[in-house]
């Protein structure tokens, strides 16, 4: 499915310059290869597959591209092994913030599991303190080269362990208006470790009014999403398999009770396209349900997940949407605003970043984009009101970049009201019969895309059926 066919795609340089917000980025999945090698030497870790930075970078990507989440997670044994001292944790956190800032990220929520970093004798609180110090140093270093970034921390409990309630309390103890700790998550293997097994952790968080997100709808399907929603999650980590709660009917695709709840209440999905391909959620980026979910009204954000394992950046993730689904500035703006609005940082921080960085950055690039389209003949000036108009892209008009309301209206005008129908599935090469849908039926039926069997088609969460057109 392509949203704006016919328009020249955004360039990498334009997307790189956009102000970005990332909500789902694992600290232990974003180390620099050179740093891993140096830290391994310092702590005597001798199990790295190679000591060449370039080769190590390739190894992580290849090892993570197994089509299996459990195998994907095995790569973290190396990164966690070199993150066992306070100086190492501080360095990794500092470099992560700097790397994100160089990619024009203006707000980042980094997440990690403190319990994974206790082998050298650190306490849980010492681990949190070391990483927090790294975030502060990273923000300061970014300011030194002219980049403004706000970095915050989400503490994770490992879902296969029995310490999630303890980590939830650790989160409560460190949470506050002036703290960099802003929330909680459960991470790790999903199958066999549902959110309901960690109900005590979520109870602690709810009673203390601490926000949390839950990994769901990645390796595990609809049931994991249902449990996450029942526990009261404010966001969903991944959620790409939301389509398992869809059904096909004569009047189009319908959402089930859970997916309707998520959509109607604007619970954000922290989607990670490249990672979702590596772990086998989808067979290829072009098969990713991102544009379908967004067009159906779900609150979608794009994220990196693990920059090292996926060899990716926020710019590269956005470029996947541009190249495969022809996303343009209004669509990327919508995604960015959704992420900023649903960040766990205090409202005053979100508003400041939105008004001083995101709106300003998009306004400059929107002006350049409008001029590019006008010079190419895709845009013309209306003689009556001098508004710029071009095809289905929308009417952006002349606007004052200093007027926030006017700019928001201008940007919003380019976001099409995309109605989802069966034709969009056909664009993705999905046969209606794969959905359990018979043109002779009037009633909806659950098939591979619905809540029944998870099929092997492009959106089936398994390996793609290459025989399909």
TrEMBL record:
<protein>
    <recommendedName>
        <fullName>adenosine deaminase</fullName>
        <ecNumber>3.5.4.4</ecNumber>
    </recommendedName>
</protein>
<keyword id="KW-0862">Zinc</keyword>
<dbReference type="GO" id="GO:0046872">
    <property type="term" value="F:metal ion binding"/>
</dbReference>
<dbReference type="GO" id="GO:0006154">
    <property type="term" value="P:adenosine catabolic process"/>
</dbReference>
<dbReference type="GO" id="GO:0043103">
    <property type="term" value="P:hypoxanthine salvage"/>
</dbReference>
<dbReference type="InterPro" id="IPR006330">
    <property type="entry name" value="Ado/ade_deaminase"/>
</dbReference>
<dbReference type="GO" id="GO:0046103">
    <property type="term" value="P:inosine biosynthetic process"/>
</dbReference>
<dbReference type="GO" id="GO:0004000">
    <property type="term" value="F:adenosine deaminase activity"/>
</dbReference>
<comment type="similarity">
    <text>Belongs to the metallo-dependent hydrolases superfamily. Adenosine and AMP deaminases family.</text>
</comment>
<dbReference type="InterPro" id="IPR001365">
    <property type="entry name" value="A_deaminase_dom"/>
</dbReference>
<keyword id="KW-0479">Metal-binding</keyword>
<feature type="domain" description="Adenosine deaminase">
    <location>
        <begin position="19"/>
        <end position="355"/>
    </location>
</feature>
<dbReference type="GO" id="GO:0005829">
    <property type="term" value="C:cytosol"/>
</dbReference>
<dbReference type="Pfam" id="PF00962">
    <property type="entry name" value="A_deaminase"/>
</dbReference>
<feature type="region of interest" description="Disordered">
    <location>
        <begin position="441"/>
        <end position="469"/>
    </location>
</feature>
<dbReference type="InterPro" id="IPR032466">
    <property type="entry name" value="Metal_Hydrolase"/>
</dbReference>
<feature type="compositionally biased region" description="Gly residues">
    <location>
        <begin position="447"/>
        <end position="462"/>
    </location>
</feature>
<keyword id="KW-0378">Hydrolase</keyword>
């Amino acid at each position: 499915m392509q949203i704006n066919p016919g328009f020249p795609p955004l360039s990498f340089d334009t997307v790189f310059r956009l102000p970005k917000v990332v909500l789902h980025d694992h600290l232990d999945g974003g180390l620099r290869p050179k740093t891993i090698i140096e830290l391994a030497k310092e702590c005597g870790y001798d199990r790295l597959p190679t000591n060449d930075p370039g080769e190590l970078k390739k190894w992580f990507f290849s090892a993570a591209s197994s089509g299996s989440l459990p195998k994907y997670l095995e790569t973290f044994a190396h990164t966690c092994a070199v993150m066992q001292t306070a100086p190492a944790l501080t360095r990794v956190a500092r470099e992560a913030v700097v790397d994100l800032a160089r990619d024009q990220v203006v707000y980042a929520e980094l997440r990690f599991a403190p319990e994974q970093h206790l082998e050298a004798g650190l306490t849980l609180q010492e681990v949190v303190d070391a990483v927090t110090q790294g975030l502060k140093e990273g923000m300061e270093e970014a300011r030194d080269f002219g980049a403004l970034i706000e970095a915050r921390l989400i503490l994770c409990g490992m879902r296969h362990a029995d310490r999630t309630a303890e980590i939830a309390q650790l989160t409560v103890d460190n949470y506050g208006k002036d703290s960099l700790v802003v929330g909680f998550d459960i991470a790790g293997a999903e199958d066999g470790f549902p959110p309901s097994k960690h109900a005590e952790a979520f109870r602690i968080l709810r009673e203390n009014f601490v926000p949390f997100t839950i990994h769901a709808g990645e390796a595990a399907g609809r049931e994991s999403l249902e449990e996450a929603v029942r526990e009261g999650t404010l966001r969903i980590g991944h959620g790409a398999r939301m389509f398992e709660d869809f059904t096909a009917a004569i009047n189009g695709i319908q959402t089930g009770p859970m997916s309707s709840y998520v959509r109607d209440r604007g619970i954000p999905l922290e989607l990670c396209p490249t990672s979702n391909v590596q772990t086998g959620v989808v067979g290829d980026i072009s098969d990713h349900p991102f544009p379908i979910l967004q067009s159906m009204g779900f609150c979608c954000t794009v994220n990196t997940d693990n920059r090292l394992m996926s060899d990716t950046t926020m710019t590269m993730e956005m470029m996947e949407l541009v190249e495969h689904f022809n996303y343009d500035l209004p669509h990327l703006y919508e995604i960015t605003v959704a992420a900023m609005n649903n960040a766990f940082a205090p409202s005053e921080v979100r508003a400041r970043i939105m008004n001083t960085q995101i709106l300003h950055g998009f306004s400059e690039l929107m002006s350049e984009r409008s001029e590019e389209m006008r010079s190419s003949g895709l845009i013309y000036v209306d003689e009556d009101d001098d508004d710029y108009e071009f095809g289905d892209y929308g009417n952006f008009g002349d606007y004052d970049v200093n007027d926030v309301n006017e700019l928001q209206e201008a940007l919003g005008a380019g976001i099409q009201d995309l109605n989802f129908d069966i034709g969009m599935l056909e664009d993705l090469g999905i046969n209606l019969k794969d959905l359990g849908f018979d043109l002779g039926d009037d009633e909806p039926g659950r098939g591979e895309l619905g809540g029944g069997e998870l099929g092997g088609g492009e959106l089936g969460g398994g390996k793609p059926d290459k025989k399909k057109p």
